[in-house]
Amino acid sequence: MSAMTGTDTTAVDGASLIRDGKAHLGIEFGSTRIKAALVDADGRLLGSGAHDWENRYVEQNWTYGLDEVWGGLQTCVAALQTDVEARWGVHLERLGGLGISAMMHGYLAFDAQGEQLVDFRTWRNTYTTTAAARLTQAFGQNIPLRWSVSHLLHAVLEGEEHIERLDHITTLAGYVHWKLTGRKVLGVGDASGVFPIDSATGSYDATMVAAFDALPEVAQMPWKIGDLLPQVLPAGADAGSLTDEGARLLDPSGSLQAGAPVAPPEGDAGTGMVATNSIRPGTGNVSAGTSAFAMVVLDRELTGIREEIDLVTTPAGDPVAMIHTNNCTGDLDAWLGMLGELPALMGLEVDREEFYRRLFGHALEAPADCDGLLSYNYLSGEHQTGVATGRPLFLRGQDSGLKLASFMRAQLNAAFAALACGMKVLLEQEKVPLTSLFAHGGIFRTEGVAQQVLADALNTPVAVGDTAGEGGAWGMAVLAAFTALPEAERGAGLAGYLEERVFSDAQVTTRDPEAEGVAGYASWLERYQAGLAVERLAGEVLA
């Protein structure tokens, strides 16, 4: 069996590993769920837990309260402990390693006393247009709206009251790590969504640091950008250990002990690369959730500035082209929730997972062009397609056939549409080589369906492994296990560890693009792009 699988527990004595403090915990704060995964040193899943949460739109800002961060984390860890006891009959008291991951980017700002200065500003906020454009011009590199440095400059340009009291800024993963360990650090992958990274040095690009400090508005500030940013660390580096206070934040009952080494905190993009073994040049992955992103590890520089493409890094520091979309499964989930009311209305009891599986499978019975049906899944603005304010829309022509299969296929097509627009630039215009593309996220749990739609959308083979539904929490747990390894056991670094131990006999299924599906999706996407004018107008006129 593969070391990736979440059900292979026969080859390992999980109870002894957990009892002896040799299990490694990864926690990821996703957009809608906080997940925990406990693994052994080879990545075998020993237990899991989860807690649902949602962002809130407060005073034109997408945010989560810090009390929700800690309450959700504790609930998630408690669910993990319950699962571990049910599986193994032991209570989780000691950890071999720990790692925190979270949605990348955004803005968490603190003063010298460690007090939060403004509400958390997540990746979903797109009001940083002017700041991002200024930075792109100053740096000679595309700087996305959601990056932390864009939010920082936006606050400076707006003359926000808190800006002169800044002591440090960080991401959500960096914040949680700081509170658990006392260390203000970031893994290089997460840091690459804060400020551009120089892959040669493994830290913030010194030329761009100087360019930022030289901006007239910034030059008047009582700080330099280098004083505000967390220290950058590669995968496996010493990022501190779990303190007594941190252990109580994870487990208020007091049973979880301090002392475990903690991996550099990473973003969800980095953990997605680990979870799909996509950290060597020519490999790539797609992570699909509330948002979606494709990561392709580069073997050369791009030809120039591409507004569709962000330049970030792997957790080991190698350059990566990132295609990020603000919207993916959120609107699909809403439609599924509504359709799920129908059985109850008829007085029927159905298994929700089976109901969704049948709906997904039915979608493949429709042509890839969806019989003329169009769906725009924009719960928020979408920079990939130039949409400032999202309004979910479903459109059809007068002669379009409104059938359930075509409707479901349109929802799946829409989930990947903005991503497909960006990937066309990377693969067709930049001609970046891509030997393999792995996908993970809950949308791929129904075998072969979303996987086939994505393969047709990108005209690229798409592979899915056993952890398609586990995702980033599992990837972060693997990074924690790697960090806990003695230097002598690390072999050829992170890439070697993944290939030789974690994915040595990994079982994956691959779907190749089908000619009819590729042509149908291309036709559908052409109409989708033509209809974006309607989506933009909806955002302007429908409050």
Automatic annotation (TrEMBL):
Its EC number is 2.7.1.16. InterPro entries: ATPase_NBD (IPR043129), Carb_kinase_FGGY (IPR000577), FGGY_C (IPR018485), FGGY_Carb_Kinase (IPR050406), FGGY_N (IPR018484). Keywords: Carbohydrate metabolism, Kinase, Transferase, Xylose metabolism. Residues 285-483 form the Carbohydrate kinase FGGY C-terminal domain. Residues 25-249 form the Carbohydrate kinase FGGY N-terminal domain. Pfam families: FGGY_C (PF02782), FGGY_N (PF00370). GO terms for molecular function: ribulokinase activity. GO terms for biological process: D-xylose metabolic process. Belongs to the FGGY kinase family. PANTHER family: SUGAR KINASE, XYLULOSE KINASE. This is Ribulokinase. It comes from Luteococcus japonicus LSP_Lj1.
